[in-house]
Write a structure and sequence with these properties.
This protein is mostly beta strands and 219 residues long. The protein has one domain: 4-Layer Sandwich (Double-stranded beta-helix), CATH 3.60.160.10. 14% of the residues lie in helices and 49% in strands. The strands form two sheets. Strands 3, 5, 6, 8, 9, 10, 11, 12, 13, 14 and 15 form an eleven-stranded antiparallel β-sheet that branches. Strands 1-2-7-4 form a four-stranded antiparallel β-sheet, with no helix packed on it. Strand 1 and strand 2 form a beta hairpin. It comes from Thalassoglobus polymorphus. This is TIGR00266 family protein.
Length: 219
Amino acid sequence: MNFDFEGNPDYGSLTVHLQPGDTFLAEAGAMAYMSSGMEVKTKLMGGIAQALIRKVTGGESLFAGEYSHPSGGTISFSPSVPGSVVHRKLDSDSILLTSGSFLACTPGVNLKMKFGGLKALFSGEGAFQIECSGTGDLFFNSYGAIVEKEINGSYTVDTGHVVAWDPSLEYSIGGMGSMKSTLLSGEGLVMKFTGHGKIYLQTRTLSGLAGWLNPYLRG
């Protein structure tokens, strides 16, 4: 199997070239186009219990599409929001994704919902994250372009801009300094990461777009 990207960073999509015997898993509804003769099955990733948890707590689909082709073929996937598609190679390690950012993976990758604690309720990312672990290729998407940062120490990010991060990083939720600064800066709460690892940030947020559109939707 090999793959390439089209449309990054604005309207990214993933194209996968399958060899005979290859299988590939993708979020339900993400398929854009594919070669004739492609075989498609539905699969509960992680079993029924984990699939139900992902649906209820993370907004992810219960099912994933499992794709294969007897003689080799091509299939393309597009996320539901405009932005970048990112590849992460897992080698018996793991990464945490925010809800809605998972796009696709190879069969060696496992998905599991992880409770982020009460602090996650105020992060703007939801109380649960998707823990992706194992060995294989993982693909996820952002709203807007992706910015990758290597953190060694501390780093502050506005809530809503975080897409994924290494589990070696810890975070806390806080304001922009004093209560006055937090209220008047217009930034609200921020996520303060500490430790050593990589973080993936998105340049736009859906909540920001919704807030910008809201005045135009009032009748």
